[in-house]
Amino acid sequence: MTSLDTFHSRATLDVEGTAYEIFRLDAVEGLERLPYALKVLAENLLRTEDGANVTADHVRALAQWDPAAEPDTEIQFTPARVVMQDFTGVPCIVDLATMREAVAELGGDPKVINPLAPAEMVIDHSVQIDSFGLASSLETNKEREYERNAERYQFLRWGQGALDNFRVVPPGTGIVHQVNIEYLARTVVTRPVAGADGETVTQAYPDTCVGTDSHTTMVNGLGVLGWGVGGIEAEAAMLGQPVSMLIPRVVGFRLTGAIPAGATATDVVLTITEMLRRHGVVGKFVEFYGEGVAAVPLANRATIGNMSPEFGSTAAIFPIDDVTLDYLRLTGRSEQSIRLVEAYARTQGLWHDPSREPAYSEYLELDLSTVVPSIAGPKRPQDRIVLSRAKEAFRQALPAYASQTSKPTPVTLANGTVTELDHGHVAIASITSCTNTSNPSVMVAAGLLARNAVARGLTSKPWVKTSTAPGSQVVTEYYEKAGLWPALNELGFNVVGYGCATCIGNSGPLPAEVSAAVNDADLAVVSVLSGNRNFEGRINPDVKMNYLASPPLVIAYALAGTMDFDFATEPLGQEPDGKDVFLADIWPDPAEVQATIDATIDREMYASGYADVFAGDERWRGLDTPEGETFAWDEDSTYVRKAPFFEGLTMALTPVEDITGARVLALLGDSVTTDHISPAGAIKADSPAGRYLAERGVERKDFNSYGSRRGNHEVMIRGTFANIRLRNQLLDGVEGGYTRNFLTGEQETIFDASQAYQAAGVPLVVLGGKEYGSGSSRDWAAKGTALLGVKAVICESFERIHRSNLIGMGVVPLQLPAGQTTASLGLDGTETFSIEGLTALNEGVTPSTVRVTAVKDDGGQVVFDAVVRIDTPGEADYFRHGGILQYVLRHLARGE
């Protein structure tokens, strides 16, 4: 029950005879002019006002919001629910299980550690593409998934039974974000609460969420305000802690026109990504408005929202309108819930009015008719390339990956085919990822292109590893209904699993003979995927260059077999009569794409597909399920181990100390991603993590991936900064997880060096450039950093989620003075660092800057004031406690 209602906003909304308690935004003058997303935040504050965390002044701050001002007002946002995928979700549940034991040790009740907000996990990140191009591939990969991950899945089944408000969507269902928009998202939430007179009433309010995956923003396409957070923030939200944030700037993005024939939703997304990354939207909300919004199908809205992390924005949202209602109806939502969504949105001023322009902080505009076919790469999603100059762009990029322009290398494939591999050859072509497999327009286009290609006698090149990993089983159903599977299978694009596959690094190994040729000749081969991430070292350890493309273009590149290709002038192959076939000859007509969608996709597909979504198949139901309020840890487990973060925790705080005598663990450049810091893909046999597993009797074939082993901190600390493409500038020309150990002067793995430093009592710092920590909302990028003994990260700028995660793990994020870089300051990483001024936090004061002194070997000093990026009082509280989970645990143990 809300304890306060200063603005008398509590009211009743009647929807065809059913009464709902709501908190009316029109009760507060000034809220009506706000952008849609800030109205959602305003309702959240009205409903949760308690006079302590949320006050009337917070509501007034929103009502008086100055679009032009820089954010400076902290608010406490309480998301309606938390959504997780299993890579990031397993360590969340490990932490909750460990917190139950820690609370008991502090004299509390273990059962206070329970999700208070609904928490839903979709197991979607564990399927790997071991088998491909066969009718049996789906079943083979599913079998291997359960063999590898049985321990993790048993642990999650324990959590589902032991924890309240926690539900698990079993493996093989789909990708979390697609399941979210197709089933989990409420758009308007209802729940029973105690009303003002003490009787139970049904409350209605906007659906909001935070998720342990950066692409949680896909749900923004449904008008649901949500974004990705690290696992540690998600755990705090589950345990009732509001999300501390500054009222953000909101970028209004006006859409006009319509997508031209030949372009796809993927091309729109890559264009918007390039525009917004160039404009600069880190930490901001992006909101789409204008006459063109009504012409954007819901699937395209979700595709755009999904890519918000690639822009750098916190959220990228579309308001509610008739398109929203039509999608809710199509996907099987009840008529009563749809009527509620419309009535609530219209009553609260959340219904999109294309003739009205809300107040925005900044403005951008895109005429959709100007969008052209595009790809992005070879290592960042914002690096868009117009398709017509893709060959030229590849050749310009190649020298960074290979010392010569061509290196034809003979290879004999397993089936006896003798062929050649060369730089630029497409080793992987994968239709994968939530971004595009949720969008029927591009998926149907891919199927029709495959049909047209097979009819002309075209085939995929024999060295290409081809795959289709849909985001939900609905895709398979409409492919079957449209008769598109035979052609896709003919080209090798058989379904390999339902989950986040190639995009997260679960591409599986290349065929042995291809891998050997690539590595022996040091070839710069490429992947082409319909995903949202193409960071270095992410997709496959054998593949140096990675390109994002629409699903039909993924197939086109499989037919071409190389990135060194011009679709306009070079044929994909020949018909039986010898006539050249070009991409334009097989590209599907947009009218046929739409007609196919209209004829094959219906409400019943979604209703039946999600009718029993939490039950799982016989494999899931047959797993042994541990029981009990606390989890019985297996000391021999290499997958799930008790987290170390609460060892020795007392109710008393350990004072914050200044940092003295610190050495540099890594000196890094710009755009260091969380993939560089905490890889998700393959574990190399000669890496610290590989050696750890081998020492415990795990065979190489069972190493699985870093992502799947995030429930074991021993693997993850050894994997931190272990990306094979990491470039630590403390070393010359060395790639991978290595550093210089200044205690010995020798090159060592980062893990081994950190162990030596910690044994010697030497604190560590990391130096970086711009956009440090961009990419996935990966809590282990911060957890591993902390466990390596890093006390501070000093760089030019941070991505939002990683900065927050560092604070949540007790690592201080420091920003170099404006306009300065490590190079301009004369830092080369060999210095010894001291950081003074952090102790002010013990007095409840967050210093705006601290004094950093770097002493060189010859005694010379570099002194500068670094900006302390602890941005809110809430973050300062977390840091004082040593981390957000320690803060929450102490409060729960006290019964607060």
UniProtKB/TrEMBL annotation:
Function: Catalyzes the isomerization of citrate to isocitrate via cis-aconitate.
Entry keyword Ion transport: no
Domain Aconitase A/isopropylmalate dehydratase small subunit swivel span(s) in chain numbering: 691-818
Species annotation: Actinomyces respiraculi
The name this protein goes by in its record: Aconitate hydratase
Reactions that this protein is recorded to catalyse: citrate = D-threo-isocitrate; (2S,3R)-3-hydroxybutane-1,2,3-tricarboxylate = 2-methyl-cis-aconitate + H2O
Cofactor section: [4Fe-4S] cluster
One MF annotation (Gene Ontology) recorded for this entry: 4 iron, 4 sulfur cluster binding
Family membership: Belongs to the aconitase/IPM isomerase family.
Record lineage: Bacteria, Bacillati, Actinomycetota, Actinomycetes, Actinomycetales
CDD domains, alphabetized: AcnA_IRP_Swivel
NCBIfam families: aconitase_1, PRK09277.1, PRK12881.1
Pathway(s) per entry: Carbohydrate metabolism; tricarboxylic acid cycle; isocitrate from oxaloacetate: step 2/2; Organic acid metabolism; propanoate degradation
This protein's UniProt keywords: 4Fe-4S, Iron, Iron-sulfur, Lyase, Metal-binding, RNA-binding, Tricarboxylic acid cycle
Pfam families, sorted: Aconitase, Aconitase_C
EC numbers on record: 4.2.1.3
Residues in Aconitase/3-isopropylmalate dehydratase large subunit alpha/beta/alpha domain copies: 71-561
Subunit structure: Monomer.
PANTHER family, A to Z: ACONITASE/IRON-RESPONSIVE ELEMENT FAMILY MEMBER
Top-level EC class as recorded in UniProt: lyase
GO BP of this protein: propionate metabolic process, methylcitrate cycle; tricarboxylic acid cycle
Gene assigned in the entry: acnA
Domain of life (superkingdom): Bacteria
Keyword Metal-binding: yes
